[in-house]
């Protein structure tokens, strides 16, 4: 989605997510009262939550708009299920949800981050249309690969579904963890969501509004970004499940540029509904680009080249809901257990965890001799793709040895993948035979041994001189390194025992270094937080002093105006006295002139001036009262 909008500098203050959540809680009563959240109310909530203004760089308007979206999620978390019970049909729910969305300000200002990553959250009415198309039941597990601030997720939860949420943006992921504590939140690149989620995370429904033309860690426009998101999510979907996606209007099977891609998609799932949507539907969220809602059921199409006819461009969500109700076929049956656990917890998640596990499981006494090195035996084979097999549309394929076989070697204990391009071509047959300990097959998997073989092959073919093995710690803040260099009298393949003993003996040292590095990082973080706290306190004092100065200046101006008003009043009193000595037409004329003069000068009551005065406390309330 390429949008031209005003862009502001990105701001990522400390603790952005908690502050946004605090601002959202301040905005929630407005929604509960049916009261419009205007710019002044939003600014007040943000300044209260962040302790400073946007002019000071404490927050920007992207964060303010996200606070509005989070307030909507909080409102629906509190009242959504009751609303859904009262309004049973999607059409009857549209009015209340549109009213809630209408209470929030239009997102007219964009940040650099939202612009770069196309962070345009799904408008609530359009989210309702996606929910209606998904036909979620309490038995469903719903995956949202780019969950944003949770506007679609809260609708899915209100419909009774369990959630698997993923969001790459750090602040938004933090918000999701707070808003949906009962469900896991992962932080993967959604274009590869199928490769990252564990095998037991099998959604029966996918709701998605992916970036239309940008990808993480890739500069410039990526025309197939949305396609990559859809392909990976569809691969993860349970057979018979339903995927509902919101994309750019041009991403459809009737578009010549995408027809072949959709034909490939229909090898896995059939497109059962697609309709473009007028850009006015997205106007509240900062863009007027036309979009599209597409529904795919995971059942291969009878004829992948045949597509369901689109009803056209929906001018509004009400029309879209009518099309969904009349044209979308019912869900396919899905047979699965309701399991939501996309994150493995058994394996250590950190280097320290792996080291600790290794330290606890290794023998108490290391051998005092170098193990005997023997030549690793393996055989080379001619690899050809299995008959009838073809590459999938996924970015990655299952990894397997292709050009060699290692008798006695065990498969790798975890799933390995390789790019589709690499999987289509077998690597060359190696000839290098490494000298390794006799029990190496019990220590390394076949994939790891293959890596050793090809590494040696590359060194033998292309590198002259001596070998050097370097071990180092990638842990931030830890400078630790060991190295072993081959000499004319000593080959490195004879020194593996020493290498292993040295590395195992360094575990405690490494743990101590990492603990020290973590302590230092924590100290720096505390120092940064203290600096932030000091800045907030200093800003609090400055704001209080400014309020006092401005109040005194206003009071001085009022006193000057009061003095002037008294002088003018004395003029009119004296003029009225003198008129008593004038008779006839001249007096009538003078009285008329005097009334005209009074009307031009307006209210000269000194008390009206003091009513306009704003005290220091009315201008600014101290945040820190302990000083």
Automatic annotation (TrEMBL):
* Transmembrane stretches, start-end: none
**Where is the Strawberry notch AAA domain positioned along the sequence?**
411-465
Alphabetized UniProt keyword annotations: Coiled coil
**Residue ranges the record marks as coiled coil:** 500-527
UniProt cross-references to Pfam families, sorted A to Z: AAA_34
List, alphabetically, the InterPro entries matched: SAM-dependent_MTases_sf, SNO_AAA
What protein name applies here?
Answer: Strawberry notch AAA domain-containing protein
Query: Can you name the source organism?
Result: Actibacterium naphthalenivorans
Q: What is the lineage of its organism?
A: Bacteria, Pseudomonadati, Pseudomonadota, Alphaproteobacteria, Rhodobacterales
């Amino acid at each position: 989605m390429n949008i031209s909008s005003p862009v502001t500098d990105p701001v990522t203050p400390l603790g952005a997510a908690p502050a946004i959540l605090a601002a959202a809680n301040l905005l929630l009563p407005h929604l509960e009262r049916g009261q419009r959240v205007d710019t002044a109310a939003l600014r007040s909530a943000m300044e209260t939550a962040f302790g400073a203004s946007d002019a000071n760089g404490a927050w920007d308007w992207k964060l303010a708009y996200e606070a509005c979206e989070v307030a909507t999620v909080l409102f629906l978390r509190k009242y959504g299920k009751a609303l859904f019970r009262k309004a049973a049909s999607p059409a009857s729910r549209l009015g209340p949800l549109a009213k809630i969305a209408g209470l929030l300000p239009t997102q007219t200002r964009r940040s650099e981050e939202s612009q770069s990553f196309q962070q345009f959250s799904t408008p609530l009415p359009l989210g309702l249309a996606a929910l209606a198309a998904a036909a979620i039941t309490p038995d469903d597990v719903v995956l949202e690969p780019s969950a944003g601030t949770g506007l679609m997720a809260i609708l899915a939860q209100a419909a009774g579904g369990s959630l698997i949420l993923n969001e790459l943006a750090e602040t938004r992921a933090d918000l999701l963890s707070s808003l949906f504590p009962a469900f896991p939140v992962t932080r993967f690149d959604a274009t590869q969501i199928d490769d990252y989620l564990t095998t037991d995370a099998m959604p029966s429904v996918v709701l998605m509004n992916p970036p239309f033309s940008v990808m993480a860690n890739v500069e410039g426009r990526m025309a197939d970004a949305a396609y990559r998101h859809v392909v990976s999510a569809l691969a993860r979907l349970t057979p018979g499940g339903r995927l509902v996606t919101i994309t750019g209007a041009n991403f459809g099977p009737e578009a010549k540029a995408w027809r072949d891609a959709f034909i490939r998609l229909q090898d896995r799932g059939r497109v059962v509904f697609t309709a473009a949507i007028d850009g006015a539907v997205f106007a509240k969220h900062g863009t007027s680009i036309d979009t599209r809602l597409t529904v795919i059921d995971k059942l291969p199409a009878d004829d992948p080249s045949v597509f369901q006819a689109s009803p056209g461009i929906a001018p509004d969500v009400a029309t879209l809901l009518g099309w969904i109700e009349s044209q979308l076929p019912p869900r396919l049956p899905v047979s699965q257990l309701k399991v939501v656990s996309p994150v493995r917890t058994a394996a250590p998640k950190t280097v320290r965890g792996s080291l600790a596990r290794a330290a606890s499981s290794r023998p108490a006494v290391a051998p005092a001799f170098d193990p005997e090195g023997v030549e690793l035996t393996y055989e080379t084979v001619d690899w050809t793709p299995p008959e009838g097999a073809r590459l999938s549309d996924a970015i990655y394929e299952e990894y397997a040895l292709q050009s060699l076989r290692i008798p006695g070697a065990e498969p790798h204990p975890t799933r390995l993948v390789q790019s589709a391009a690499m999987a289509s071509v077998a690597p060359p047959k190696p000839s290098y035979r490494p000298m390794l300990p006799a029990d190496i097959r019990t220590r390394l998997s076949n994939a790891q041994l293959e890596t050793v073989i090809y590494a040696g092959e590359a060194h033998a073919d292309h590198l002259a001189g001596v070998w050097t093995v370097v071990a180092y710690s990638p842990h931030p803040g830890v400078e630790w390194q060991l190295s072993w260099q081959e000499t004319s009298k000593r080959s490195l393949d004879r020194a593996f025992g020493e290498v292993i003993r040295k590395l195992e003996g360094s575990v405690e040292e490494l743990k101590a270094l990492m603990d020290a590095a973590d302590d230092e990082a924590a100290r720096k973080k505390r120092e940064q937080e203290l600096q932030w706290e000091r800045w907030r306190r200093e800003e609090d004092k400055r704001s209080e002093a400014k309020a006092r100065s401005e109040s005194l200046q206003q009071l001085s101006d009022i006193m000057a105006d009061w003095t002037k008003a008294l002088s003018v009043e004395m003029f009119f009193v004296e003029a009225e006295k003198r008129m008593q000595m004038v008779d006839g037409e001249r007096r009538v004329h003078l009285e008329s002139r005097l009334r005209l003069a009074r009307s031009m000068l307006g209210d000269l009551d000194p008390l009206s001036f003091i009513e306009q005065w704003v005290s220091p406390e009315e201008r600014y309330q101290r945040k820190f009262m302990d000083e």
